Amino acid sequence: MSLLLAESFAERGARERAVSLLDPQSARELIGPFARLSSPYLAAQSVVPQSDDGTVVMRGTIGGERACVVATDGRFLGGSIGEIGGAKIAGSLELARRDFERGTPTRMVLALDTGGIRLQEANLGILAVTEICDAIVALRMLMPVVAVIAGRVGVYGGLSLSTALCSTIIVSEGARIGLNGPDVVETESGIDEMDSSDRPLIWRVTGGRMRFEAGFASELVADDVPSIRSAVERAFADPHPLPPLDPPEFPDPQLDRDAFLRAMGIDP
Question: Which of 116, 161, 163, 187 is 20 to 30 A (C-alpha) from 130?
Answer without folding.
Answer: 187
